[in-house]
User: Fold UNC93-like protein 1 from Vicia faba.
Amino acid sequence: MGSAENEESAIQISETTKSSSLFRYNSPLAQIILIGLVCFCCPGMFNALSGMGGGGQVNATASNNALTALYTTFAVFGILGGGIYNILGPHLTLFAGCSTYVLYAGSFLYYNHKQHQAFAIIAGAVLGIGAGLLWAAQGAIMTSYPPVNRKGTYISIFWSIFNMGGVIGGLIPFILNYNSGDKAATVNDGTYIGFMAFMSLGTVLSLTILPASKVVRDDGTKCTNMLYSNVATEIMEILKLFYNWKMLLMIPAAWSSNFFYTYQFNHVNKTEFNLRTRGLNNVFYWGAQMIGSIGIGYTMDFSFKSRKKRGIVGICVVAVLGSAIWGGAVANQIKHRHGVILDFKESGSGFAGPFVLYFSFGLLDAMFQSMVYWSIGALANDSEVLSRYTGFYKGIQSAGAAVAWQIDNHNVSPMSQLIVNWVLTTLSYPLLLVLMVLAVKEDSKEEEKTGEKKEDSKEEEKTGEKISAPGHNGSLSLSIDFSGCLFQL
Assistant:
């Protein structure tokens, strides 16, 4: 009798959530959209600012030093961020992280008038702390909230919204500096003020994100029954990541995934184009990211029934495309004539090749990073574990970026930077394939029905990780097909 009542109750919950799935504030889709909007306003605008090369300044030294400080602290707090998120939860973690972006944009507004880089460097270091918190929280949300068999789709939804921030952020300097032509090399005050306004909005929006325990999927199950952790536990779990073979296989991919920004921003966009064209280029660069994330998200969710096979195909697609784009970059670098500055209206056909290359860089960046996030999400379902995994990824990624910005500050040739980027990204593909083959398990029939994945006890004993099946408590649950969610959005 009790069992029948429980089944009937579970069915009623499922039907209720199904009927209002598009409008529920506590649905995974709504929360992914909200975290996308937060990142639209904060790191999205930061990306637009960085994408202009030199932070919009004629001399890139201040920006390079600020970014080095940023990624140095980011490397530390990226790794610690997962543990901090597990202790503080999403509200405090995201709010603290987002507030540091406003300070960073304000430091360049100050630099426009005083030309003192100390404030920019300090603001960069503070932003590194905040970014570590924000991205660890974002990674946990993006990889643990969605249904297991639709993580690629949800990642592409997030990535599209997030990179719309870069598109809008690129329009700001393009519009405000449109009439300057070749006269202006430094963006005006209004550009920085516009960035600060968006970043402030994102800080407020961060308070709308729900903890995993309050997010309910359309089948009536909660994403995870996460209990907030403690400092001692998180320290031990973070230390374990450094000898976790899964994480070690991801280090080249993590290191290279922001390493290439220095070359793309400072030696393609900044060196080859004038200011207003740089803003226009960024509109298309971040727009290309939206296309790339949707394409790879579809491939890694729908191309084959086998999850492992989808992962392998996705990695191979990115590897082939990446090799073609880096080959095109070498050809462009060989042809580039020092001192020739391109304008989208006045340079004619000479503008087309470098513009297409920069657009392709955006496409590759989104596909590469979405591929890595999908790979992380395929390793576990539990929010606690995934927050540590994504924090580790962002920490290593930021360490690579800190090194890259200082390499550029020491005047290493653009061709040398290009070759290093190509080698690093190429090295990451076979290691990710090994990860797919050895670590990613196929869905069982039970997993296909419920959208959940149980880790076997032997693997838990080997890795020391706690992988739980979120929301699975023995009650009846109904599966809901999310295959149309991208089109419903």
About this structure: Confidence is low (pLDDT under 50) at residues 1-19, 444-489. The chain has 19 helices and no strands.
